Amino acid sequence: MDGSRIEPPPVIKERPLILNTQFPILIVEDNVVSRKLLEKSLIKAGYTVASVENGQEAIKALDEQFYPIIITDWVMPEMDGLQLCRAIRARDNAGYIFIILLTAKDAQEDIVAGLEAGADDYLTKPINQPELVARLKSGLRILELEKSLKAANEAIRVLSITDPLTGCYNRGHMSEKLLNEISRASRYNRPFAIALCDIDHFKKVNDTYGHQAGDRVLRQFAECIRNSMRQDIDWAARYGGEEFLIAFPETDLDNATIAAERLRNCISKIQIRADDQLIRITASFGVTHYVPKEEPHEINAVIEALIHQADACLYQAKSKGRNRVEAKPMPPAVKPA
Q1: Which of 53, 57, 181, 242 is catalytic?
Q2: DSSP assignment letter at 121
């Protein structure tokens, strides 16, 4: 021996298993041995897995939890794979479900029948593990694309209903929301209140400090409104210019007036810096409410009467010196349905 040191072989570390919990898999297989082997194989590959014995159990499982990937056998009792595919495609699912059909049938007409029933892909038995993993990766790419498209569509939807400057609803969506609120108030016989609020002397802010400062005032004003509202209950829309509509579901006139007074006080404390000066603002509020009657009313007539009364109260608040809340119930003369 030459006395040179023999280096030990390098230690090869196994890559940590990354669990794919974002896309859980539902296995539908009536053969116990096949089901267990498939479960074990998928868990080893890093997937979150659940399993059932037939199509009917799969539908029940989908009622309890959403599974974006389903691997189903073709031949099963009670509901076979083709029937399950059709049933899944007929459902209103939470998202797209990628279906892999397992079959011992490899004739072209059988494959076509499976794909026409709603399957996205198929594997012939006995299942080849690398092929299964490859098919799943293909399915995951489709599901990721679907997820991205849904997110993009949701972003477009939000932009279409939102005022870009203030982040409140825009006037178009306000009309749709009011229709829903009046319908719900009438259905459950619950009060519904609104407030129209307007920044006092806002033109003076723009003329003195410029429109950029005016935009900062509007954003801060809207932020104050949002912070004062009940989350996921109240909502606000930019009615026009410096005027906003605030909706108070399940709220009578007294409580809506209290909420408006609290918001008026909050706004009076706002300070916005512009050109080394502090801009202070106040706001005036007109509040009214709708109480469903025994006789049904035409919804658009109710909305028109509500806004007209709130606007009249707002005008009264301004005529009495601004920076105040005026409230009156909606007049009873509303067109019946």
Answers
A1: 242
A2: E
Rounded (5°) CA angle 60-65-68 = 105
Work out how many domains the chain is built from and give that number: 2
Name the pTM for this structure: 0.71
Is 215 part of any domain?
yes
Chain centre distance of CA 29: 34
Q: Are residues 113 and 242 in the same domain?
A: no
pLDDT, tens digit, for every residue of 150-168?
A: 999 999 999 999 999 999 9
DSSP state of 101: E
Could you tell me if 108 and 203 lie in one domain?
no
3-state secondary structure at position 97: coil
Give tens-digit pLDDT for 282-330: 999 999 999 987 666 788 999 999 999 999 999 999 999 999 999 999 8
Domain-ending residue, one of 102, 128, 158 = 158
Task: Indicate the residue type of 124.
Answer: T
**What local confidence, expressed as pLDDT, does residue 11 receive?**
44
Residue-wise burial string across 34-67, b where 16 or more C-beta atoms lie within 10 A, e elsewhere? bbeebbeebeebebebebbbbbbbbbebbeeeeb
Beta strands per DSSP E along 166-228 = 192-199
Residues 151 and 248 in one domain: no
- What phi and psi values does residue 122 have, to the nearest 5 degrees? -145, 155
242 labelled catalytic = yes
For residue 319, what are the domain limits?
A: 171-327
Q: Which CATH number fits the domain that encloses residue 295? A: 3.30.70.270
